[in-house]
Design a protein that fits this description.
The chain is α/β, with parallel strands linked by helices. Helix content is 34%, strand content 19%. The protein is built from six helices and twelve strands. The longest helix has 25 residues, at 51-75. The N and C termini lie far apart (193 Å).
Length: 296
């Protein structure tokens, strides 16, 4: 009735046709492993810094800050010895100017720092102590540590000789500058203008107007060209200068107006005419008027 199933040899049992996921394993290359290790080490280094490196970084920053502060403070300091510069004629020794500069700079403690330098106030004080100066500037340099004092002056012209008062050097603008006793010896041989006005002058006062000084400057140049070195006297009469040449018994009266050289020409012409006539003035020749000459 029943048939016995015969086991078939050599046949494998059948499995379901349902697909299954297959996991594959492989070995990474050495290059890939090295790259991975480097990236992981870099990431860990960035995440966690050793304590000694953090301390080192803070110390470096502190040192840099201290150095910067020190450099700023040091570069802003000013010394006590000013550098003297002269624009124009040097009336005194540089040492004399430097001593005056030291006294003024030391008078205000703010002058120890560049950004507190009292340049305008110091210039005014120096102008009072250096009357030969037409202008004075005080400044500091970016890199230097000494204040720089620049003194501008006019050329010396004459020595203004006074009775009962100091003799002053007059500059070419007609202003009394410093006393002759305080100047360099080389200026003590300048032509002398004797004060006969009856009024003595002080330093920085105007003895002659700039125009009068210019006319007298031209006259001195003309006499020098004739190898004559006369004595000049400022008269009590306004604008009048009396000029006496060595070896002559008379003097010439000049007016310090714009025709001073024309007056000089009139003087020489009159002297030549009187010589032809065999006459000689006993006291003066007055050439103050352009069209008339008087003598006595």
């Amino acid at each position: 009735m029943f048939k016995k199933k015969v086991k078939e040899e050599g046949r494998r049992p059948s499995y379901s046709q349902k697909s299954e996921k297959v996991i594959s394993y492989y070995s990474a290359s050495r290059k890939q492993l090295d790259t991975f290790e480097r990236k992981r080490g870099r990431a860990e280094t960035q995440r966690v810094k050793p304590k000694f490196e953090l301390g080192k970084s803070k110390l470096t920053k502190t040192i840099v800050i201290v150095l910067v502060v020190f450099i700023c403070i040091y570069s802003s300091l000013l010394g006590a010895d000013p550098v003297i510069k002269i624009n124009g004629t040097q009336y005194r020794s540089l040492k004399s100017y430097q001593i005056i500069g030291q006294q003024v700079m030391a008078g205000d403690i703010r002058n120890k720092l560049k950004f507190l330098l009292q340049a305008q106030s110091d210039s005014s004080k120096l102008m009072e102590l250096i009357p030969e100066a037409s202008s004075i500037t005080v400044r500091s340099s970016l890199l230097g540590h000494n204040p720089i004092i620049t003194i501008s002056t006019q050329k010396p012209f004459m020595i203004f000789q006074q009775k009962g008062a100091p003799d002053f050097i007059i500059d070419q603008k007609g202003r009394a500058s410093l006393p002759v006793s305080e100047s360099l010896k080389m200026y003590q041989s300048l032509p002398r203008l004797i004060n006969g006005s009856g009024v003595n002058n002080k330093a920085r006062e105007q003895v002659l107007s700039p125009d009068e000084a210019n006319e007298l400057l031209q006259l001195t140049a003309q006499y020098r060209a004739d190898n004559s070195f006369p004595v000049y006297t400022l008269s009590s009469n306004p604008y009048e200068v009396d000029i006496a040449e060595v070896g002559k018994s008379y003097f010439a009266k000049y007016s310090l107006d714009p025709n001073a050289l024309a007056q000089y020409g009139s003087l020489r012409a009159t002297e030549a005419k009187l010589k032809q006539l065999g006459q000689m003035p006993a006291q003066y020749i007055d050439v103050r008027l352009t069209n008339k000459v008087f003598y006595q």
